[in-house]
Specification:
The chain is built from 6 helices and 2 strands, in the order ααβααβαα. A two-stranded antiparallel sheet has the order 1-2.
């Protein structure tokens, strides 16, 4: 067994008593401040312009063909206005809920109340109404209602960014395009 040897204090070594620990942190010495001139590089003046003799060059005129008068397409997708059957069914269910008396029509007032819940601007809702109320009787039948709801939803989800000013062929009730779309 090893015994720990106690170190004997020599007479030259003074006895050291533990120093109390201070909770304060000594301040960090400040760096000497640098004068602003030493921070900012010296700005140089641009060299004087070089004078050169001016020579006349013949003017060249480019011929730009006239731009044909075209209507800008609202979407790059040609079928943006085809109403998917799932959405059509959903809008028909909403129509039946909003027409509990089974009159087959929703008044303009009732439609406005419902459509304004979308949060779309009044101008957009007016355009949607003009496109949807295709027989201009002031109320919407089920097909007109489906078209209105489709346009509102398409605008809200970004399917279309700008509403058309006239009904696209895919949304014209009674057109061959509309008939082909609804029978799918």
């Amino acid at each position: 067994k090893k015994k720990k040897k106690k170190k004997k204090k020599s007479p030259e070594e003074p006895e050291v008593s533990p120093q109390p620990v201070s909770n304060s942190i000594p301040p960090i010495p400040q760096r000497p401040s640098i004068p602003p001139r030493e921070i900012q590089p010296e700005l140089k003046q641009p060299p004087p312009p070089i004078s050169r003799p001016v020579t006349q060059q013949p003017k060249q005129t480019a011929t730009v063909p006239p731009i044909p008068n075209r209507t800008v397409a609202v979407s790059t997708s040609p079928n943006v206005y085809i109403i998917p059957p799932v959405e059509r069914d959903k809008y028909c269910a909403i129509f039946r809920r909003e027409d509990p008396e089974n009159t087959g029509l929703i008044t303009g007032e009732k439609a406005y109340t419902l459509f304004s819940r979308s949060g779309l601007p009044t101008d957009d809702l007016a355009t949607i109404w003009e496109i949807s109320d295709q027989n201009a009787d002031g109320s919407l039948d089920p097909e007109e209602f489906v078209i209105a709801m489709f346009l509102i939803n398409s605008k809200l989800i970004g399917r279309i960014t700008q509403l058309p000013t006239t009904p696209p062929p895919e949304l014209l009730i009674g057109s061959s395009t509309y008939q082909a779309v609804t029978q799918n």
